[in-house]
């Protein structure tokens, strides 16, 4: 198979050119770009029963506790630098609405459609800064624990926080065994986009608060506290990891500011990792990059089977759902303060699948399935000839996705391949 390749020679040395050319040729040989010939390859579609099944086995329910935040980070998704900036009204989540959705899900969790009773169900608190609406958190925790005491359901709480209010509430978080994700972008320089409304840096306060919980509750800190960093033009993946390891003996999950939304304002320039280096290797394993490489290895090793059926039915004969979109609610349900029901927090709010207003829930499984299938119908002809079909991670409504809305589809990927490869020295 031949591919027209346009390369800007001024960007690469002769050594780099040969290195990546060999990688490209290896991918062609492995069938990475092979076009799918079967018309039924992306014929998979959803039914209302699929949606109901996922609701009955929902693993995570996440509330956007409040729109309020005590920081005004420069790269905030809801900030002025984002093209899809949504108007925030400092609204808090209505606890009555929260209890109504919990009651609905409780019935499904206790139904015979739930094949995972006994597994942990995560109740998440998200923001804004969730601790600014602690009253809501406290009431929902009590409500969930009452359900737990009277059923076989097993719950766990988690929260993402900027840690500014941690000293005031950490006793409660420890007592209720919260899994806690703290947002910090590294040392003071690396963390300089995380500022107050008056542009004052937040690093010193956050750093001291993390030290406080680590010293006061060392066992809890070791088992329950995680870190998340945003990569941007002022920090570096390896330096962020080195800082967190040195200061807190922890690893950190990292994600980049989305260039599709902010242009080059906070663009992170990726660097090559040397996987022969222990620190680089650990950093890679803790990063989001592993997902894409694992998917590549899984789908092109020829030795991976999802289930018994896949042993006997070749991949090219199994119907795939177009794009990398997961079945709604198969991972979580996210509900905004305004009552919009979404399959996760990274999905654009215009793709809401239902809503809850004044205690009334509007969530129609058949309508949800029809909505997704209408998206798939638009994409299947493009997806069936795309080299990424086996390992696509582009999601409907996700701002990392270039499929719908005003964005251009990347179906030409099989003609103009672009890769972010690791260089192993």
Structure description:
The protein has helices at 14-29, 48-56, 95-109, 134-150, 166-175, 203-216, 218-224, 237-248, 259-262, 278-285, 289-300, 308-312, 365-383, and strands spanning 60-64, 120-126, 154-161, 179-183, 225-231, 253-256, 333-335, 340-342, 354-357, 360-362. Helix 5 links the parallel strand 3 (154-161) and strand 4 (179-183). It has a ten-stranded mixed sheet. The protein is of the alpha/beta class and 425 residues long. The longest helix has 19 residues, at 365-383.
Report the portion of residues in β strands. 5-15%
Strand order of the largest sheet: 6-5-4-3-2-1-7-8-9-10
Tertiary shape? globular
The CATH class designation is Alpha Beta
| Number of discrete helical segments | 13
**Which structural class fits the helix and strand makeup?**
alpha/beta
What's the total count of β strands?
Answer: 10
Low-confidence stretches: 398-425
CATH superfamily: Aldolase class I
CATH architectural label: Alpha-Beta Barrel
CATH topology: TIM Barrel
Helix content: 25-40%
Topology, element by element:
Layout: H1 14-29, H2 48-56, E1 60-64, H3 95-109, E2 120-126, H4 134-150, E3 154-161, H5 166-175, E4 179-183, H6 203-216, H7 218-224, E5 225-231, H8 237-248, E6 253-256, H9 259-262, H10 278-285, H11 289-300, H12 308-312, E7 333-335, E8 340-342, E9 354-357, E10 360-362, H13 365-383
């Amino acid at each position: 198979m031949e591919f027209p390749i346009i390369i800007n020679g001024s960007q690469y040395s002769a050594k780099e050119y040969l290195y990546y050319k060999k990688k490209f040729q290896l991918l062609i040989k492995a069938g990475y770009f092979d076009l799918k010939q079967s018309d039924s390859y992306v014929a998979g579609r959803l039914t209302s029963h699929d949606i109901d099944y996922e609701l009955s086995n929902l693993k995570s329910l996440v509330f956007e506790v409040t729109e309020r935040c005590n920081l005004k980070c420069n790269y905030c998704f809801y900030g002025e630098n984002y093209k899809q900036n949504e108007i925030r009204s400092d609204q808090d989540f209505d606890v009555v609405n929260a209890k109504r959705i919990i009651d609905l899900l409780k019935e499904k969790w206790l139904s015979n459609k739930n094949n995972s009773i006994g597994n942990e169900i995560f109740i998440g608190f998200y923001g804004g800064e969730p601790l600014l609406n602690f009253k809501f958190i406290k009431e929902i925790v009590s409500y969930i624990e009452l359900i737990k005491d009277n059923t076989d359901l097993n719950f766990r709480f988690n929260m993402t926080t900027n840690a500014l209010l941690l000293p005031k509430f950490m006793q409660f978080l420890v007592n209720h065994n919260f899994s806690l994700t703290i947002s910090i972008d590294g040392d003071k320089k690396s963390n300089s986009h995380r500022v107050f409304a008056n542009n004052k840096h937040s690093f010193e306060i956050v750093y001291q608060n993390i030290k406080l919980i680590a010293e006061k509750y060392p066992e809890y800190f070791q088992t329950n506290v995680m870190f998340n960093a945003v990569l941007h033009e002022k920090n570096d993946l390896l330096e962020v990891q080195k800082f967190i390891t040195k200061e807190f003996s922890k690893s950190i999950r990292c994600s980049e500011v989305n260039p599709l939304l902010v242009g080059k304002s906070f663009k992170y320039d990726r660097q090559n990792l040397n996987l022969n280096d222990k620190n680089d290797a650990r950093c890679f394993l803790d990063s989001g990059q592993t997902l894409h490489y694992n998917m590549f290895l899984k789908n092109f090793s020829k030795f991976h089977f999802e289930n018994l059926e896949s042993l006997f039915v070749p991949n090219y004969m199994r119907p795939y759902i177009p794009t990398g979109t997961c079945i709604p609610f198969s991972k979580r349900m996210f509900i905004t303060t305004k009552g919009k029901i979404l399959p996760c927090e990274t999905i654009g709010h215009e793709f809401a699948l239902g809503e809850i207003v004044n205690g009334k829930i509007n969530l129609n499984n058949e309508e949800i399935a029809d909505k997704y299938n209408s998206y798939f119908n638009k994409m299947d002809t493009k997806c069936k000839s795309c080299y990424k079909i086996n390992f696509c991670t582009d999601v409907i409504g996700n701002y990392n996705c270039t499929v719908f809305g005003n964005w251009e589809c990347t179906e030409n990927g099989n003609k103009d391949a672009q890769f972010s490869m690791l260089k192993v020295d």
